[in-house]
Every structure is written in structure tokens, then in C-alpha cells.
Amino acid sequence: MTDVERTETGSRAKRPAKRRTQEERSATTRSQLVQAAVACIAQLGLNKATFSAIAAKAGLTSGAVQHHFQSRDELLLAVVVDFGKSLADTSDTAHAKNEPIASRVRRIFERYWGLFSSPQFLAIMKIWLGTQGNVAVYREMLDHMHWFEIRFDREWVELFSDCPADPETIAAARHVALGAMRGLALSLSYSVDRSGAKAEVALLESMLVRTLEGDGKKPARRAGGQAKTAG
């Protein structure tokens, strides 16, 4: 190795790591606070999940919490929005339209059940029930969830557009699947025996696949990309 090569190698080795921007650091802190709020609500209950308790869980000061969230209500809304964004994240299904229906359903179920069986969902339920007396916060939560519902319906109709089932049935299947998962997750929160959860989710999944597959006749593709019913 020449002196020039050694100098260049040494320069690369000493090159400092790229510093995160203020925006990136702020986003990381907000995420930490949201997760700390989830943990506090799940462990202590909604009323005891104060700014100071959340700050302690996140390893920050109460002032740091207030720097990112002007009020506790704003932080609670952030927990709800974060959960909705995770449910609406379509990165796992964006390129799945050519997969069998069962594979597409499995992808969605893995995402949904991973979230509904998490402490974050229980925190969401406690926030939902505990803020109904706060009209402004409750209404804003409803607005956010309505927007996410529109996103969910759009994802399902697009993902299963080649199914024999009509768009109304596809949307209805999603509502049934979400409702059943919510109910199962809530029942598990106070159940001693959770061994049957996996089988129940699998049964729900198979029922949904049968609904979407209909009579088993999938649309065939005509030249030009238009679909016709194979039969």
C-alpha cells in the first residue's frame, strides 16, 4: 500500500458519522414519548398516565414532553394517530396483487393481529373510553379514525380488485375482520388461557379467504388489461 493509499484509508476511517438533523432527532423523541405513553396507559391506567409519569418512562423531563406536546390531550391523540398509521401502512401489500388471495389475506392479518394483540391497542381502547367526556378530543379522534377507515377500504378494494366478490362485499369483509380481531384482542386482555387465539385468528382468516374467492372463478385477463370472468 502506498503512502497516498494509507492516507486515504486513514481519512475514511476517521470520517465522523453523519449527524442527524434536528427534525430527525425531534421525530425520534416524539416516537419515544408515544411509546412511553402507551406503556404508562397500559400499566397504570389512563388517569395515572400523567406528563411526569410519561416523561419518567421515556427518560426525559416534563419540560421535554411539553416541548413536543403542548398538552396531554395532544399526546393522547398522537398515540391514536400512530396506531392508525401502522394499521394503514400498506408497504407489506404494495406489491402483493399478483399473489394468491390467501397470501394477500395472510399479509394483512399478520399486520392487523400484530397491532391488535399489542399493548398499544389496549392503550387506544382506554383512551377511547376515557375521553368520551372530552368533546373536542373525542371528536378529533373520530375525525382521524374516519380518515383511516377510508384508507383501509381503498386498500382492500385495490388489493382484491381481481376477486369474484364485489367491492361492497370486499369492504364488508374488512369491517367484519377488523371487528372480530378487536373483540378477540379485548377478550384476551382479561383471559387466563390465551392458547386458542392462534386457532381463532386462523379460522377468521380462512373464512375471509372463502368470502373473497367466492365461487372460485377468478377474473381472467383480456388483451389490453381488462378483466372478464373465467368460466
Model description:
The chain folds into two domains: 23-70, Arc Repressor Mutant, subunit A (Orthogonal Bundle); 77-215, Orthogonal Bundle (Tetracycline Repressor, domain 2). The protein is globular. The protein has helices at 3-14, 22-44, 51-58, 62-68, 72-88, 101-116, 119-130, 135-159, 167-189, 197-213; strands spanning 219-221, 227-229. The N and C termini lie far apart (71 Å). Strand 1 (219-221) and strand 2 (227-229) form a beta hairpin. It has 231 residues and is mostly helical. It has a two-stranded antiparallel ribbon.
Quickly describe the structure:
The chain contains ten helices and two strands.
Element layout with pairings:
Layout: H1 3-14, H2 22-44, H3 51-58, H4 62-68, H5 72-88, H6 101-116, H7 119-130, H8 135-159, H9 167-189, H10 197-213, E1 219-221, E2 227-229
Antiparallel strand pairs: 1-2
Helix pairs in contact: 2-3, 2-5, 2-7, 3-4, 5-7, 5-8, 6-10, 8-9, 9-10
Number of domains: 2
> What percent of residues are in strands?
under 5%
Listing every helix as H and every strand as E from the N terminus to the C terminus, the arrangement reads: HHHHHHHHHHEE
Please identify the top-level CATH class of the largest domain. Mainly Alpha
Tally the helices: what do you get? 10
Mean pLDDT across every amino acid position: 82
Give the N-to-C terminal Cα separation: 71 Å
Shape: globular
CATH topology of the largest domain, which one? Tetracycline Repressor, domain 2
Radius of gyration: 23 Å
Instruction: Please describe the biggest sheet, giving its number of strands, its sense, and whether it closes into a barrel.
Output: 2 strands, antiparallel
The appropriate CATH architecture of the largest domain is Orthogonal Bundle
Instruction: For the largest sheet, list the strands in their spatial order.
Output: 1-2
Unreliably modeled segments: 219-231
Number of strands: 2
Q: What's the multimeric state?
A: single chain
